[in-house]
Amino acid sequence: MNNLEINKVHDFWNSESCGERYALGDSNVEKFLNEEKSRYKLEPYIKKFANFDEYKNKDVLEIGVGFGCDHSQIARQKPNSLTGIDLTQRAIDNTELRFKNLGLNSSLKTDNAEKLSFEDNTFGAIYSWGVLHHSPDTKKCFDELHRVLKPGGFAKIMIYHKHSPVGWMLWIKYGLFKFRPFRSLENIYSDYLESPGTKAYTIEEAKELVKQFSNAEISVQLSFGDLLDGNVGVRHKGLLLSLAKVMYPKLLIKMIAKFFPIGLFLLIKVEK
Residue 35 pairs with which residues in a beta bridge? Predict the structure, then answer.
């Protein structure tokens, strides 16, 4: 692991937890509930994929709690035990505050997904939404996930998919329009999609990441970013984004996605 790389990822997310900008309201409870409402209205596919009911009576680990929204959904299912980790103290503090205000319980701490501080075969279920692709060594994260998962246990993970409207739009802005049309999608994702070094994978590459598991199901999901919904593109605001939001062929993108695997999210369910 390159400490400089992991520190850059840490510093990016320690400035603002994922989802934090949607926490609007006068009280902490109001902020957390408004963020929850916004999250699942904008991304209804999260609940469909996660199927939080499945975590009931299990020993559960979430890798990358962020602002704690999905973690609170798991906690409400009364798991046998619940543990949440994040690279940043900011995320842990936010999630602890959320749980205190909502009357929920979890064991929360900072940890590194490339070197989890748990014994082998500890958890019956693991959940991670949009986290592992930010790590400098994503393959090592999957190996660690496999190590701490109990035999017969399952994990649900979302990582970024290479072939997506988000990637193509970023390439147009930072490749084509910067007179650098030969910039690869790997380079574009690494430099312009969230934290430095962010990666995106093809379906075949994702299969390699999870080949140590006994069973794997992988599908592609259009994200709200692919459809330019919500407050997307804050880092890339400008005339081009404003025009794109007005002229964007959202219905056409949705139609194409029915026949071809395009979309920013790779939804992965694995079993050990």
Answer: none
Range of the domain at 267: 3-162+198-225+263-271
- pLDDT per residue of the chain (272 residues) written in tens, 0 to 9: 467 799 999 999 999 998 898 899 999 999 999 999 999 999 999 999 999 999 999 999 999 999 999 999 999 999 999 999 999 999 999 999 999 999 999 999 999 999 999 999 999 999 999 999 999 999 999 999 999 999 999 999 999 999 999 999 999 999 999 999 999 999 999 999 999 999 999 999 999 999 999 999 999 999 999 999 877 656 666 777 777 778 889 999 999 999 999 999 999 999 99
- CATH code, domain carrying 19: 3.40.50.150
State the pTM of this model: 0.95
CA distance 194 to 235: 8
Domain count within the chain? 1
Contacts of 251 (CB under 8 A, 6+ apart): none
